[in-house]
Amino acid sequence: MSAPPAKGPVTRLLELASLVGLFGLMLGVDRLVGPAGGPWQRTGRDLAAIGFFLLAGTLASSLLEVLRLPHLTGFLLAGIVAGPYVLHAVDHETVADLAIVNSLALSLIALAGGAELRMEAVRRGFRSLLAATVVQNGLALVVIPATFFLARDLVPFTQGMSLPAVFAVAMLWGVVSITRSPSAVMGILSQTRPAGRLTDFTVGFVMTSDVVVVVLLALVMTAVRPLLDPGATLSLAAFAELGHELLGSVAIGTTLGLLLVAYLRFVGRQILLVLLLLGLVVVEVITYLRFEWLLTFLTAGFVVQNFSRQGEKLLHAIEHTGEVVYVIFFATAGAHLDLPLLGKLWPAALLFFGVRAATAVAGARLSARLAGDPPALRNWGWAGLVSQAGLALGIAARMQGQFPTFGAQFGALAVAAVALNELFGPVLLKFALDRSGESGRGATGEGAT
Question: Number of structural domains, the chain?
């Protein structure tokens, strides 16, 4: 497939003028209408914000192509500039209302991620995935908590804590640090259409890392709770609950995958409506049942891809739906970024960002050497591991409920660190795919080497 013709300077100027005009229009409407009152006015603002994010995100991503930056960066920047912390073209309430898009986007991302995990590629790269999982997570759970402990003077809420309590918080921060961003990876893959060992490794590692994080979170929280709560005792009940949650999620995902196979095989129409139903309704049901819905959708996509001939049809449908959903999801994520908070916590956030990225690079080099990986993985295997998003913030929110004495400040620091990882991670991954020569190979049908 030939590449689209390059846009000339006149087209770029028209895009820039359209983007500026769009921001001006949204600001004018916001000032003219004033604060939202009733539900109908609130709904109108939400719909206007969705349309604005779609247009502004698309235009911004197109303009950033000049700098060879990924489309996700344009979506994020459009949300940041329009959000409540810069121009206030979209207010806090509207951003909160659009949270429903998050579950839809993440369900599609998990479903597509499972469908991208082809058994042959996983089997071929199993040694690399195993080495990377052990080395990356093991190294991060040593280096990053140690950094947190030594740099505790930069973290305001650790002042006055005992050293054992600081150690416990550092271990919890280590778990947050090993979360990755399937959404960022899938967004970059949808733009660059890559194929190759680096692509297979990145998808496999990032999609399976959520399972590792869920397990480690339960283990660490159970182990450190007595250090934070003197009245708590070490209990094995959490491990039984964890096993029930994981096995139940896989079982439901397998059933859902088989139902999708039957629908795609014998009906095959209105797939968009089915995906919307999964993302908006089934997610809530699985959450109510207290199962891990991301793991459920990951399993469902894996079943469709590897135990039927409907995998490509599913990916094709998600691709067309996701083109719209991804823009809104990442623009909303940009609007969520608390820039004043980042300004207050930037020394600690910048330190943890740098150490986490350096740990990913060192872990990738070491695991690649142990697994005998090809040059693409040795040089760039770390690039897809920098981004963070929803899971890290979800764990931080859980900390707030579990540990109210410091949970809010812990969550604030997590938001600041995730902001940096979310901004720079997609850029690094796209750069790595371009430099390794894998960008665009999936569109031409070339396989992995």
Answer: 2
